[in-house]
Design a protein that fits this description.
Elements (H helix, E strand, L loop, with lengths): L5 H12 L4 E3 L12 E11 L7 E11 L5 H19 L5 E11 L3 E13 L3
Parallel strand pairs: 1-2
Antiparallel strand pairs: 2-3, 3-5, 4-5
Length: about 120
């Protein structure tokens, strides 16, 4: 990953790998989901002294959500969505996922919350 926000870099990588999905970097746009959607947010930065002063570990939250409020219909669509997102993350050398949790975003939108950790470069 280059000297760009890990969120932006991950959003762009997922958008390229998932052309049938709407991929966004803003949590607010997940209201009114009309097609499978992936949202990416930075959650934390951790300084890793063993990596040198110019690298940080970035914690990201990735949601994959589907446009149905019916839990039974959502599960089938989410199985496919989760598989697609995990497959898109697999080739990235600078980011990896560690956990996926089923949930309901904004009390209506069914999805999976995927914990992703990335390495970012800071400074010149």
């Amino acid at each position: 990953m280059g000297e760009v926000s890990a969120r932006t870099e991950l959003r762009e990588a997922l958008a390229a790998a998932l052309p049938a999905y709407r991929v966004t970097g803003s949590k607010g746009v997940l209201d009114g989901v009309t097609r499978p959607t992936v949202g990416v947010w930075q959650q934390s930065f951790t300084r890793r002294t063993d990596w040198g002063k110019d690298h940080v570990q970035v914690g990201l939250e990735v949601w994959v959500v589907v446009p149905t409020e019916d839990p039974d219909k959502a599960d089938d669509a989410l199985d496919e969505g989760l598989d697609d997102v995990l497959a898109a993350l697999a080739p990235l050398g600078w980011a990896d996922w560690s956990e996926c949790q089923r949930g309901v975003l904004n009390d209506t939108t069914h999805g999976y919350n995927i914990t992703v950790t990335a390495v970012a470069t800071i400074g010149d």
